[in-house]
Specification:
Helices cover 25% and strands 23% of the residues. The chain is α/β, with parallel strands linked by helices.
Length: 167
Amino acid sequence: MKIRIAGTANDSIVDGPGIRFTVFTQGCPHRCKDCHNPQTHDFNGGRTEDTDQIINMIKENPLLDGVTFSGGEPFCQPLPLCEIAAKVKRSDFNIVTYTGYTFEYLLENADSENHFAELLECTDILIDGKFISELKSIDAVFRGSTNQRVLDCKKSLDEGKAVDYMI
């Protein structure tokens, strides 16, 4: 399966707990002011990559604690990300997904065409909400602005409401 990405980071320590392989998806409808990754906004930018190649890069790194899907907006390409998650996930290996959408928006608008539900199901930790420059904080762990939430996606789905992830 193909995915359009801006790039990858082999050993990130800022995109979730532990050492992470981060996939930066290409294309974002939010275009947040002062975005950390503005080069990811253009849906025609970046490059097309085969998901198997990304999976192989992940499997080659024995130091990883998990994989992070960042952006761009990962929910614009949920199926290839689900394929990556399914092929690399193991009991001690978690998936973090960043999104400019809120958990509530994704849950309410999930349907068979946009595949939001599938990516939510593949996600262990969801960091949701648009980046708001005026709320930027270096104290917001794994977040750029204080309005963004770090959610336990599995518990949130089970309860049908946002449940904080304990960092």
